[in-house]
Write a structure and sequence with these properties.
Blueprint (H helix, E strand, L loop, with lengths): L9 E6 L5 E6 L11 E2 L2 H11 L9 H7 E9 L5 E6 L10 E5 L8 H20 L8 H17 L6 H9 L23 H40 L5
Antiparallel strand pairs: 1-2, 1-5, 2-3, 4-5, 4-6
Helix pairs in contact: 1-5, 2-3
């Protein structure tokens, strides 16, 4: 189902130090604030689809997934690693190209994305109550309270909660002390016929290398500073 939002036709995104993609510029700046605006990459979205799979046995409806996201395909990648994404009107369930997914958060309280989160929250709790041997039935309030605590922690530490983290926190929610038997999802590697996605993986590696280099430099500076302080403390007083 195509969504009627003619002003939303493209966006630009950059990868952050957290290895997630964040929108840096968008065509519809009136309705969208790019500060802390996350976007879900193809591998992340596939992981979400895999996590949703068990919920079909408990009443998951595709329409909630379809309405919750705008679909963008990769148009080009700049030398500075900024990716240009072009909006496609194809349904997110029918799009055959690799795509980025932007949640519809224009109305954060009652919009399609909020409905999607509510839907998967109810079904996750329903599945856990049917699968776990708990003395007292789990509630949505417990799930939401745990997620709010994690988001508040991010906020207090000056971080924005990425949509991928928000969704997977629901789909992977477990009360303390319990486990579910499930196969771990393997990362999907881009094929040789997807050069743009291969380049995205290269961007991931470049950013990760930069982060490691920055942290190493910081450690070296701290070690040098500690060494200087040690010499000052242990040197004999001048006569």
């Amino acid at each position: 189902m195509a969504k009627s939002s003619p002003n939303l036709s493209w966006c630009k995104a950059k990868i952050g130090n957290d290895m997630n993609w964040w929108v840096s510029e968008i065509s519809d700046s009136i309705h969208w604030d790019t500060e802390g605006l996350a976007i879900i990459d193809p591998k992340q979205f596939q992981h979400i689809v895999d996590l949703v799979e068990p919920l079909y046995d408990y009443g998951f409806l595709n329409e909630f997934l379809d309405k919750a996201f705008y679909t963008f395909i990769i148009e080009k990648i700049d030398k500075d690693k900024t990716i240009h994404l072009k909006r496609t009107q194809e349904s997110i369930l029918e799009c055959e190209d690799q795509f980025f997914a932007l949640p519809d958060v224009i109305d954060e309280e009652k919009g399609p994305y909020a409905d999607f989160l509510d839907h998967i929250s109810k079904l996750r709790i329903k599945m856990l109550n049917a699968s776990l041997d708990v003395a007292q039935k789990l509630t949505i309030d417990e799930l939401e309270e745990d997620i709010r605590e994690a988001q508040n922690k991010d906020y207090m530490e000056g971080r924005s909660t990425h949509f991928f983290a928000e969704i997977t926190a629901i789909l992977e929610y477990l009360p303390a002390g319990f486990e579910l038997d499930s196969d771990e999802n393997e990362d999907v590697e881009p094929s040789e016929t997807e050069p743009l996605l291969k380049e995205l993986s290269d961007i991931d590696e470049d950013v990760e290398d930069d982060i490691e280099a920055d942290e190493t430099m910081k450690w070296e500076e701290e070690e040098e500073e500690e060494a200087d302080n040690f010499e000052e403390m242990t040197s004999p007083p001048e006569e």
